[in-house]
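W.,

You were right to be curious about this one. When I first looked at the sequence I had no strong expectations either way, so I just let the prediction run and decided to look at it fresh. Below is the sequence, 298 residues in total, followed by the output.
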Amino acid sequence: MGESDIIKKNYKAEKNIFENLIKSSYTWLKADDAEFAMRNIFSAGIFILFHRLRLNFSKTEVKPIDKLEIKAIIDKIYEISIKGFGTKKFNKNIDFEKIENSSAVKKNELPKRSKLFNAIASVVAEEGLWKASILKIANKFGQSKSSLYFYFANKNEMLVNMILSEITAMNKVISGRRFLYDSFEEKLYSDIIVRYSYMFQDKRIMLVFDWVHFQGLDFHKIFKNKKIEDLIDYSLIVQGVKNNMLTELLPLHEIEPFLVMQAVKEIILSERFGSVLSVKSMRLIYNFFISGIFLKGG
């Protein structure tokens, strides 16, 4: 039995476990949502582990993760997956379809980008931050390497300019959509739809953000000691915690990126496996974020 056969066999076994658990337990999930549950719990683990590692690497002395830290991470994954971030005060009944129709970002709403911006974004999306060289960007741009220095002093300045302009543009759309709704719950789901549809319209930007997230251990130095999370607008999350709508299961600055990662993961998986990405995925993410899987018994 080859490696791919073993992976498929294990995946099928795990899927069956989740399906049986859903059937025998009190949960809002249906049996055919077993794969969604699996990948959300798995990605929650990756997210938390990555942030703990990054916190570790940011210290002067890097220490290996010990058994107590591993247990703490597993406990946190379990808590988020079972409970979610919402409180009893949270109203789960919102008009999903209405928000999806009014919040989805259309192609013509994306910022107008220069030829150079497109070259930088395309190379970073394909190569990642570390491998995106000035030469590769120049070749994509269709000009000499030396000509790029008329625009930027160095590669770091080039990357920062692109990322900051894109985050600013997305935050502007998010803020504009929030004004359409009254309740915190509606605003939260609107945020999810805006981020998902914005990145879905230009998947290069999604990949750039993904590279920044996972290759950005020292990237805060380029941003003048700011982390990528500092650039994300998480004011709504702060409001939710302050008003006792959300519980602080993660540090405040990590909750919004966690939610963004869930949407990114769904887009990437739909691309990899050639499946159709529907708004159902975003509704599941919203419910998972608020309620967790909420399994009892089983």
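Here's what jumped out at me. The mean pLDDT is 81. And, maybe more interesting for your project: Residues 34-57 form the longest helix (24 residues).

Coffee later to discuss?

I.
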